[in-house]
TrEMBL record:
<dbReference type="GO" id="GO:0003677">
    <property type="term" value="F:DNA binding"/>
</dbReference>
<feature type="domain" description="Response regulatory">
    <location>
        <begin position="6"/>
        <end position="127"/>
    </location>
</feature>
<dbReference type="InterPro" id="IPR058245">
    <property type="entry name" value="NreC/VraR/RcsB-like_REC"/>
</dbReference>
<keyword id="KW-0597">Phosphoprotein</keyword>
<dbReference type="GO" id="GO:0006355">
    <property type="term" value="P:regulation of DNA-templated transcription"/>
</dbReference>
<dbReference type="Pfam" id="PF00196">
    <property type="entry name" value="GerE"/>
</dbReference>
<dbReference type="InterPro" id="IPR011006">
    <property type="entry name" value="CheY-like_superfamily"/>
</dbReference>
<feature type="modified residue" description="4-aspartylphosphate">
    <location>
        <position position="56"/>
    </location>
</feature>
<dbReference type="InterPro" id="IPR036388">
    <property type="entry name" value="WH-like_DNA-bd_sf"/>
</dbReference>
<feature type="domain" description="HTH luxR-type">
    <location>
        <begin position="147"/>
        <end position="217"/>
    </location>
</feature>
<dbReference type="Pfam" id="PF00072">
    <property type="entry name" value="Response_reg"/>
</dbReference>
<dbReference type="GO" id="GO:0000160">
    <property type="term" value="P:phosphorelay signal transduction system"/>
</dbReference>
<dbReference type="InterPro" id="IPR039420">
    <property type="entry name" value="WalR-like"/>
</dbReference>
<keyword id="KW-0805">Transcription regulation</keyword>
<dbReference type="InterPro" id="IPR000792">
    <property type="entry name" value="Tscrpt_reg_LuxR_C"/>
</dbReference>
<keyword id="KW-0804">Transcription</keyword>
<dbReference type="InterPro" id="IPR001789">
    <property type="entry name" value="Sig_transdc_resp-reg_receiver"/>
</dbReference>
Length: 217
């Protein structure tokens, strides 16, 4: 790693933040700012213009995705800024959101468990700074196992019917809109439920579950 790489670090956990400062200092980095929330991260980057940003995903005040949103904002402002985000858990959607910024290069998504292996962590930082992309192996495995689009098996007409169901229309209202019989709509709905693998059950509303599948897709 080149000497005196300027780093802005964002991590709300004081012990981990101080530990990372020490690790980075040992490997040719100078931490120009170490902050504990996303707002301070954005301000520090604007002030110090670092070569590398390392941020936790979950930070105050809501501890949801403040760090990730800050990272995406920074990448949109400066697409070549090297950014590495750290996460306590495997969350594929966060990795995807980060990789969608810029050209997908000079970014990293690592689980915090990997940080304890200092050499691996430093190697990942070097890769990102060198223009590469680093995604935690466990995240990659989850992405590869991600199920296919559940709506892929539906015909265009069935998709149309499901969209109208999602808008809250009854079978009779859908029939009127599509100029078909209500019985035809009923058959389409039955086919949709079968293709989405939603068998009859006493404690679930299959129509609602079909709508949820549509919204997720």
């Amino acid at each position: 790693m080149a000497e005196l790489i300027r780093v802005v670090l964002a991590e709300d956990g004081v012990l981990l933040r101080e530990g990372l400062v020490g690790v980075l200092s040992r490997f040719g980095c100078t931490v120009v700012a170490a902050v504990g929330d996303a707002e301070a991260l954005l301000a520090a980057v604007a002030e110090h213009r670092p070569e590398l940003v390392i941020t936790d995903i979950r930070m105050p005040p809501s501890f949801t995705d403040e760090g990730l949103r800050a990272a995406v904002t920074l990448r949109r402002r400066q697409s070549d800024l090297a950014v590495v985000v750290l996460s306590q858990y495997v969350q594929e959607e966060y990795a995807t959101a980060l990789l969608d910024t810029g050209d997908g290069r000079r970014v990293g998504y690592l689980l915090k468990d990997r940080v304890v292996d200092v050499q691996d962590f430093v190697t990942a930082l070097r890769t990102v700074l060198g223009g590469g992309t680093v995604v935690d192996p466990e995240v990659v495995r989850r992405l590869l196992r991600r199920p296919k689009d559940p709506l892929a098996a539906l015909s265009p007409r069935e998709r149309e019917v499901l969209a109208l169901v999602a808008e809250g229309h009854s079978n009779s209202a859908i029939a009127a809109r599509l100029f078909v019989t209500e019985a035809a709509v009923g058959k389409h709905v039955g086919s949709i439920l079968a293709k989405l693998d939603l068998p009859p059950a006493e404690d679930t509303n299959r129509r609602v579950l079909a709508v949820l599948a549509y919204l997720r897709a």
